[in-house]
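Proteins fold. Shown next:

***
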Amino acid sequence: MMRYSGWDLYAKGLEQSRETMIMTIGGHIGYRRRKVKLTIRELADRSGISSTLLFNMKSSKTEPNLSSLEKLAKAFGELK
């Protein structure tokens, strides 16, 4: 049986939390896009983010940066 130190468990928890957050953001992007009835291409045009990057964010292959999140918020009308 493998024993973990408190630090190992903390670090493992942070990594799992980060993965969950990325998956949650990706799911939210897809949900919002479908809610406003946009294709990935239309969202890409509105936001200025490539459709490939949007697809990768939606499928949790890429972690969005703050700039991308701001562009998406503007494209969805959440940020002026």
Q: What stands out?
A: The chain has a mean pLDDT of 81. The radius of gyration is 16 Å. The chain has one domain: 6-75.
